[in-house]
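Q: For a teaching handout, I want to show students what a protein-ligand complex looks like in token form. Below are the inputs, and the small molecule is flavin-adenine dinucleotide. Please produce the holo structure.
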Amino acid sequence: MKRVAIVGMGVAGVDVLTHLTEAGFDGRIDCYDERQQFGSGLPYQEDFDIFLLNPRSHAISLNPDRPKEFAEWVKEKGLTLETFMPRRIFGQYMREKLEHLLQNEHVHVHYQHIQHVQVLETGEKERYQLTYQSADQTSVQEVYDAVFLCLGHAPSQDPYHLNDSPYFIQNPYPIRESLQAVPMHQRAAVIGMGLTGVDMVRALMMEREAKEVVMFSRSGQLPIVRGTETVVEPVHLTIEAVQKAVATPGQLTLPLEQVEEWFFKDLAHYQFDLERINQWVGASVEQLRANLNDLDEAGRFQAYVAKLRWVLRALWSHLSRQDQMRFAQKYQRSFIAFSNPMAPPVAEKLLEWMETGRLITTDQVDDIIQLKAQQTGHFMIQYKNKTTTTVDWILNGIGSQTDFSQCQTDQPLVQQLLNDRVVEPNGRMGLMIHDTHSSVLSSRYGELRALKLFGQMVSGTDYQNNSTFVLYRTTQKGVHDALNYLKDKKV
Ligand SMILES: Cc1cc2nc3c(=O)[nH]c(=O)nc-3n(C[C@H](O)[C@H](O)[C@H](O)COP(=O)(O)OP(=O)(O)OC[C@H]3O[C@@H](n4cnc5c(N)ncnc54)[C@H](O)[C@@H]3O)c2cc1C
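A: Here is the structure, written as tokens, with flavin-adenine dinucleotide included.
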């Protein structure tokens, strides 16, 4: 009997189990994750209700072919369907779906953290050994024909080296737990201005009534506000155009200039005004207000960018390495900003706090100094213009690590895989995988066809395409590839 393992049971892990089940896989399936996140993963675990889903409720589910499934589930449960539901409710929906999948007698649950993945053999006999520590602290080894690594988010890094301070919260989720240490009415700072940083600000303001919060990052850019819902299909920059271009004999790569030409033609076709769009990017009261006042146009542009995600996946492997780097430099930040918008009610609250001076957003922080026995705060924030301010607490809202170019990470399993040269950094953009198989590409072993890697850490090739719908499609391809591969294997 074939044996496969799923390591990590967030959205990607649940998706893998769904696809294995639907494909009628009749071998043994072992699912590993810690109890708290088993079936919800990081974003959808039990936490404060103030943490909302980014998409509207009827536009997020565990199956892109049934986008309204979650909204229907909410109604079936007799819960009030809000436009933007709490993420933890999505976690409950995920867990219920998982319960059905676990009825399969071939599926086994292990509330364990995998510590080590070893490649035992490659090629015809490809096999992997997983190690975890059982409750009585003995080391347990299990051997598998295929392993699906659905490890999700690597912990964010600690750029100001604050980790030894009791007033610094490095890994905040679940915030309901980590925030217990923080008293009411404090002055605090949040490092990072993406969606994770926004979560931290909301928790401090709404659950701890913080006196003042300083939120900062190097880019000084808040997420864009989710606009009015609509559909906008690319006309020139399409998957078909990419396929046609790379089918031309001798056309090994697709020049970035060609991609840009198609992109600008699309902008002209839809009369998108980049100057107007750029007015929403930043973190000032004016920018946020401009964005909130222009939700129809924001929605049109986001709908277009959402479709581009799939085109980018199709064209990425046809770009030369140099063009991949150029693309990353020129467009990646904006692309991520427009693909991961925040819900309007979230933006409205931020604006209110900014206008009343409770929230200060800045890209001007130079350094953070830990203070000793200081009465007015535990940290001093030094700005580039040499002025300073003190805060009592700092929360790390940087978001997960995607740059592994230094082969350093606080995710122990990934660190082991990097050290053993099983996985490789893809420049500064995640870990290397095969574009269509989602297999790990190793400098030591070559393509490891039965070792799949999904989620945030492969963002280099997937361009942080890890929304629930994208994960569903990516895992579907990866699982089918693994099953075909296993079928052809002799042992
Ligand atoms: C704060 C936040 C909010 C988000 N909101 C949205 C949203 O509203 N809509 C949307 O579409 N996307 C959202 N996303 C994107 C999100 O990344 C995906 O939707 C999805 O949750 C990612 O799932 P995953 O399975 O890849 O990762 P995760 O959810 O991180 O799950 C990975 C799992 O692997 C486990 N794991 C890791 N290492 C090991 C190990 N060694 N052994 C065993 N288990 C291990 C972890 O415990 C975890 O449970 C959000 C992301 C974040 C961070």
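A: Two things your students might notice: The two ends are 10 Å apart (CA to CA). The longest strand covers residues 446-453.
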